[in-house]
Design goal:
Order of helices and strands: EEHEEHEHEHEH
Largest sheet: 7 strands, mixed
Mean pLDDT: 93
Shape: globular
Bound molecules: guanosine-5'-triphosphate, magnesium ion
Radius of gyration: 16 Å
Low-confidence stretches: none
CATH topology: Rossmann fold
Helix content: 25-40%
Distance between the termini: 16 Å
Number of helices: 5
Number of domains: 1
Number of strands: 7
Length: 199
C-alpha cells in the first residue's frame, strides 16, 4: 500500500472525546519505549508525525492520524510505566481499557513487543485481557535491527513458543525495525487487506 497522505488530527485524553468518524482504526500499543511512535513514523515515512523520545512515557494521550483520507492510525500511551505514580498509572490504564473495549471503529490493535526481551508478565496479561474480551489484535516485534540478522527468527520463535502454551491459535505477527524499515510492507499490506475486506 502506498501512503499518499498522513495527517495528525488530534490528541484526546479519553475515548469518548475521540473524533467520531466511522472510519477503520488501527491502534498501536505496548510497553513504554517499545517503539510505537517510531513505528508509526516508519510506516508513514514521515519523520516526526508521531512524537518519539528516548525517555519512556512520551505519549500520554490517544493520538489520531488520518491516512489516505480513509483510515486512521492511533498512537496510544505505553502501559506498565510506573515512574509517574500510582494515580497517573491508574488513569492511563483506564484510558487504554476504555479505548480498547469501547471504540467501535477499532479494527485491529497491534501489540508491540521488543524482540530482544523474554516474555514479560505485563505483556502476557495484556494479551490475555484482549483474548478474554474478543479484541482483534496482532503482534508486532520491534527493534529487530538491534539483533544480529541470524538471531531475529529464533528470538521471535522463542516468544511465540511461550504464547503457544497459552493460546490455541497464534495471532498474526510481524517482525519490524523502524531503523531499517524491516516489516513495513508486511504491516501495511495486512492493514490494506483488512480495509479491502470491510469495504
Ligand atoms: P512511549 O510513547 O514513551 O510509550 O514510547 P514509544 O513506544 O512510542 O517509543 P518511541 O517510538 O518513542 O521510541 C523509544 C526509543 O526507542 C527511541 O529512542 C527510539 O529512537 C528507539 N527506537 C524505536 N524503534 C526503534 C527501532 O526499530 N530500532 C532502534 N534501534 N531503535 C528504535
Ligand atoms: Mg510514543
Amino acid at each position: 500500500m502506498k501512503i499518499t497522505s498522513a495527517k495528525y488530527i488530534g490528541s484526546c485524553p479519553r475515548q469518548d472525546m475521540c473524533p467520531q468518524t466511522g472510519l477503520p482504526e488501527y491502534a498501536f500499543i505496548g510497553r513504554s519505549n517499545v517503539g510505537k511512535s517510531s513505528l508509526i513514523n516508519a510506516l508513514t515515512e514521515r519523520k516526526s508525525l508521531a512524537l518519539t523520545s528516548s525517555t519512556p512515557g512520551k505519549t500520554m494521550c490517544i493520538n489520531h492520524f488520518l491516512i489516505n483520507e480513509s483510515w486512521y492510525i492511533v498512537d496510544l500511551p505505553g502501559y506498565g510505566y510506573a515512574q509517574r505514580g500510582k494515580k497517573a498509572m491508574e488513569k492511563l490504564k483506564n484510558m487504554i481499557e476504555r479505548y480498547v473495549l469501547d471504540r467501535e471503529q477499532l479494527t485491529c490493535l497491534f501489540v508491540l513487543i521488543d524482540i530482544r526481551h523474554d516474555p514479560q508478565a505485563k505483556d502476557l496479561e495484556f494479551l490475555e485481557f484482549l483474548g478474554e474480551n474478543g479484541v482483534p489484535f496482532g503482534i508486532i516485534f520491534t527493534k529487530a535491527d538491534k539483533l544480529k540478522p541470524a538471531q531475529v527468527k529464533p528470538f521471535a520463535e522463542k516468544y511465540l513458543n511461550v504464547l503457544k502454551e497459552q493460546w490455541e491459535e497464534l495471532p498474526p505477527y510481524f517482525i519490524t525495525s523502524s531503523a531499517n524499515k524491516l516489516g513495513r510492507e508486511d504491516v501495511l499490506n495486512y492493514i490494506d487487506s483488512i480495509n479491502a475486506s470491510i469495504q
